[in-house]
Amino acid sequence: MPPSPAKKSLWSEYTNSEGRKYWSHATTKQSVWEKPDELKTPFEKALAKTQWKQYTSKDRPYYVNTATKETKWDLPAELKELKEKVEKEEEKRAQGLERIIGSPDRSSRSPTPEDIRELREAAAHALAPYGKLPPSSTDSPAKIEAPPTPKVPAGEVIVMPPGGFAEKSKAEEAFIYLLKREGINEQWTWDQTMRQIIMDPLYKALDTLAEKKGAFEKHINSILDARRQVKQLRISKLRPVFHKLFSNSVHIKSYSTMKTADQVFANNKYWREAQFDERALILEEYVDDLKRMEQANEKGLRDRNLKTLSDLIRTLDISVSTRWRAAHDLIVSSATFKQDTDLQKIETIDMIQVYDVYSRQLEIEHEEESKKLRIDNVRKARKAREGFKALLTEIQEQGHLNRLTKFKEIYPKIKVDERYNALLGLQGSNPLDLFMDHIDDLNEEIERSAEKLQRALSKEGKEIKLETTFEELEEWVKDAKIENQFEGRVRKEVYDLVHGKLQQAAEDETRRNERRRRHRIDDLRYALKKVGRHIDLEMTYEEALPHMKDLPEFKDVTDEEDRKAAFDKFVKRQKEKLREAESSEHGSTRDRDRDRDREDRHDRDRHREKDRSERDKQKDRRYSSTRDMEKDESMDIDEKEHKSSRKDRERERDKEKEKERDRRDSHRDRDRERDRDRKRGSVGPEEKDRERESKRRRMSSNSDRKGKDDVEEGEI
Predict the structure, then answer these.
(1) pLDDT tens digits for 206-245?
(2) 666 with 589: CB under 8 angstroms?
(3) Confidence class of residue 387 from pLDDT cuts 50, 70 and 90?
(4) What is the CA radius of gyration of the chain?
(5) 72: closest CA among 44, 87, 51?
(6) What is the Cα–Cα distance from 195 to 206, expressed in whole angstroms?
(7) What CA–CA distance (Å, rounded) separates 275 from 185?
(8) CA-CA distances (angstroms) from residue 386 to 429, 431, 442, 533?
(9) How far is it, in rounded angstroms, from Cα 196 to Cα 497?
């Protein structure tokens, strides 16, 4: 009997119902999806050390890189190099063994015991990398665990002809005969097989190592196919028997496992005779069938309950505003739900789904009704606005409405009209908005007519001025023969518009002249400080005139009364300073500063109030101002204001400097008083606290003043 491998593998390969391969250990009963290491080929072992993993999809292998997640159907280049390297190493080892046994004198005769001993010693050194050799024929039968081997047909003998086989098919058949004769089965690896058959002359029937390995794989596959067919035949015979056992047992459910089945059928003869994987496969098939049947029944019951509940919910008092909790109470308390036991098994999530679908349908119907209502309201509001516009047109034709008319003036005439009352409370523009739009249209119409009329008169050499009367305008229109182009009402409103703009421009110019006059007076008052040492406060204006007549600010003031007013203000201010200096010992400088600041703020507020009132008057007459004239005038104003802006900044800076000098004088006077008190020894704790507080304020004032002066210098 041919020797068997040194160690029989305890792993066996199986295929589940889905066609996926797995391996089971005979002793530990462990099942794994990946091929065990002891069954892997040298290339598979080398592949496990790389980042690539091999998988199968529909009997087609593909490769996945675990690091980069790259997937390929074809063998990657690095794996190709690895495979070639492994095959070359296998071929070199085989060639080394062939050189040991391949001498001509030994292959042409039967080996002697000395030859066999010599060959074995040489082969032991050559096959050292493969590990322990398979057992020899001299081992004890008790130590050999011979796997089941395929039998060679009786009477069939194949020998190696001189010079080898002429046909490759014959050579492959001879190599397979060798494998059968040596008892090679699916539990043998290629390494173990080569150790067993390498010394046989038929080993050289095939030339290359790849051809020998291909024949080995073909032989192994034929054995596996035969055993698989036998196994399938056994399973097909056991399946009806086991199915009958499972159906008659109350313990086998859709969730039962092999542990439960072994406990239930431990005494059954057929169950004990069947192999473990056969029992597991048939049980798995039966359990899967039970699961599918239960799922089908559950699906049918669920569909039936959904349909029943959909019909039921439409008969209940559920509206678009009904919440889920109220709807759930209505469903559960209905007579149909209480009488139907199958409907009571419905899941809550399914009830919510039915309610959601029905509520969405109600929302769609509600939105459609709301949309129709909105369309009706919009149509009603549009008709009401058109009617109110027609009412305004009628009032205008009657002469009670023009561009200067206010809403409160026409309200008594429209408040009882149906067209006005029909518009109240509707969406969109209200009566006041439509009235303002109508007034704006009238203003635009009058402005266009005014431009057209002015162009026509300019061709005749005529121009409407402030002193032009309406009668003169009428005569100009008749002379130009354009009275048919403008109605009498339009000509009157055009005249009022143009005349109002001209009047507004004249008032603006007067106001600007007054502002410039005040500025020139202030400039002269501050300029008098430059020659203040030559002017005695007891001098009259005529006596001080020689000292200030050469000042540029004096020449800018053309009115003699304005010059006198500036001189009087200067004298008054200087006298106030003298009085403050004289009364510093008896009065509080802080109070005097506060009074002076209050007076200055009062003057500024008075000027601001006057300017604000003038701006309000100008804003009230906005309808009577023309855009072109305002643009030209604003440009003139900006140019003139720009020229005087520097003088204004200088004047404000002089004011601030004067205030700072006064503040420093008051602090100096206060310090002198404290020094005198300290010399007398009358300084108490309270006075010391006030002195420290005053010093902190002076330091804060100086730092603020320094920052302010820096900013002003930067601006200059």
Answers:
(1) 889 898 899 999 999 998 998 888 888 888 888 999 999 8
(2) yes
(3) very high
(4) 60
(5) 51
(6) 16
(7) 20
(8) 11, 11, 17, 79
(9) 125
